[in-house]
Every structure is written in structure tokens, then in C-alpha cells.
Amino acid sequence: MKRFAILFCLVLVSCKLQASTQEEARQPIATKPAMVKVLLKKNAEGALVEIKGNYQVIDPLTQKILSSGLRGKRFYLYPHQEGIKWGEDFIGTYQIKIQTNSPESSILVDGIQYKGNLEVYHIDGNVSFINEVEVESYLKSILAPRFAHHIQDVVMDALAIVARTNVYYQVLHNKDSYWHIDAHDVDYRGYAATLFNLNVDRAVDNTRFLIMTYEKQPFATTWSENCAGKTASYQSIFRKNVSSPGGIKSAFAERARKEFHWSFCVPKAKIAKIAKTNRITNLDLYIDSNSEKVYAIRVQDGSHFKEVDFFHLQKGLGNNLLLSNDFTISIEGNSVIFDGFGEGCSVGLCIYSATQMALRGDSAPEILGTFYPYSHIEQLRSLPEKELRGAPPVV
Fold this sequence. Notes:
Number of domains: 3
Distance between the termini: 23 Å
Structural class: alpha+beta
Number of helices: 11
Number of strands: 23
Helix content: 25-40%
Shape: globular
Strand order of the largest sheet: 4-3-8-11-12-1-13
Radius of gyration: 24 Å
């Protein structure tokens, strides 16, 4: 009887995930899918911009059509004192939006292909390039290189929902900004990156427009390879005043904790360089009391102190050495010894634990419900102008 109930639950959840694309088909075509603006280049002298397919050039401030074409266009785009030049002069215009008019059209900026639209802003003698692209296409691009290794389908579905939730949060949180995300921060590689990872493409399509909400809002989140037994809330590690689900204890990762042990040592001078101090007389850890994860270190140089957050420290040492924020440190002579467990920042979904849950038959919503207590899965094709109060949950 218990097995029957579990099978019934899995069939029900699977139907709900598959229904996302069916529900989309019933929605008005005029509803614009969620878009994200990604900064490609900032304060550049110019770039070679090519459009394949028909297009329009508009002023994003006035929505006035400045130019159009049916067969594409390829010219070096650059700023000048009176505006912007891209084959033709746009005199008196210091911002343009190159808008593609069909799904087959694409944009190339210095040889890199993008879908969607391209916004260009002329500021102080330089130009910045921003790709406005559908969130679904953006997700395929950023997730494909990160999960080149095999991930179980159910876990990949969960990761797609996690990533989409975070993008929706970023867009809403930065809705009044010229761009929402910097391409360099997320290794955004454009459209070409979406063509070689079939599992990622399948997961994004299978969970189309599904996000998690907490207190009726999408929230900032991420994932880790292995949380070593506990996860932490986003705000406790990233030190940002945001509302998000709290951390949890993971029995799967706790049991395998010793299997993911690591250690290394570096010269004290290396830490001093990262902290920009002359020397190190002592080191202390700032630890989140609930998860016991490190969010920063305090470097003492005599009577002076310098704080270094975990992510800055990991970047300085290399994420191939400092694998996670579950560690202790000790000083021996001129060396600093790190001893830790797990991999990643231990925020959000733990891939190791999620994989074990999938092996026992758990669904993507069940996995997400475990790692994000008091959250709901909702289907949201387009982003609202205001808060998401009262949106009906899918799961």
C-alpha cells in the first residue's frame, strides 16, 4: 500500500512538471516571456555588431523606430560626440535597441552569437552592450558548461528550477537598472553554449517557467556539490539582507562527510596578500552559528584587523584548493593549514544529497521541498511589475 502511494505521488508530480508546457500553450501569445538583461561589455570603445535576419533599431527611451532592415547588417558600432554610429549615424541619440523580429534572427557581438535583443548605451565617450534575452535561453547557456558531467534527470530538473528562481529574483531586485546580471560573473557565453548539453536543455524545457517562491516571492539562491551535512541560509553566507528559506540538516551528506575530507597548507604571506596586509599575527573565523559554515575570516596584523569574506578568500586561493566553507584553520610557523569537508558554499540545493534522494525515487519537487522549507513551486511565464502576492502554487 505504501509503495502504491509513493508511485501515485510520483505520477502526480510528473504530470505537474509536464503540464508546464501545456499550460503555456493555453496562455495568450501576447504574454511576453520573462526576459533578463545581461551586461556583455562595459565602457568599451566599440564592437563589431552583426544582425542575421530582419531587425529594427529603436530608441529605448522614446520607442521611436530609427531604422530597420530585412536582410541583416554588419558594421563596427562605436560612439562619437553626436551619438552612435553603426553603418549609419544616429545623430542626437545616445542609446539604441537593436530588436530582432523573428525567432530565427540572431545577433553577433565580436563574433559571439546571442538571441534576443541588443541594447547599446553611449556614456562618457564609451559604449556598453546589453543582451536582453529570454530567461529560458539564458538558463541553457549558463548551466550547460557547469554540468558537463552527468547529472540525474530529476536532479537536473531541480537545478533548473533553482537557477530560474535566482534569475527571477535578480531581475525583480534590479528591475530599475540598465542590466540585471554581468556576463563575466556567471560565465554567460551566449546562444552557442545552448547547443551541446542535451540534459540541461531537456531540464530547462521540462520545467519551463517553474520557479520557487518564499513568502510569495522568488528568492536569491544557489547550489553546492556537497554540503557535508548542513546547508546555510543565503543571507547568513552572502551577508545580504534578503528573505530566503533557512538551512537544513542532510543525513545523506552527513553520513558521507568523511569521504569528502580535504586539507592543504599555504604560506601566511599568501593570506596576507589576499587581505592586503603586511603580515599575519593571528587568524579568526566568522562562523554562522546554525550551519557552522564559515562566511569570513579576520586577519590580524598587530593591532590592525582586516575581514575577508569567504568568496574573496576562495577566489584568492583558488576553488581547487579551498573547496568549501566548512573548514578550520591553524597556524604552524609560516604556514596556514586548512582542514575541511564538502564542496561549495553550502547554500541551497546539495547536489550530492539530491542525487541520493533521486536514487531512492524522490521527485524534483520533493527534493526542492526538503532543501527549501516553506517554499512553493509556481508557474510564472512573465515577470510582474509589482510583487508576486497571492500567486497560486503549482505544488
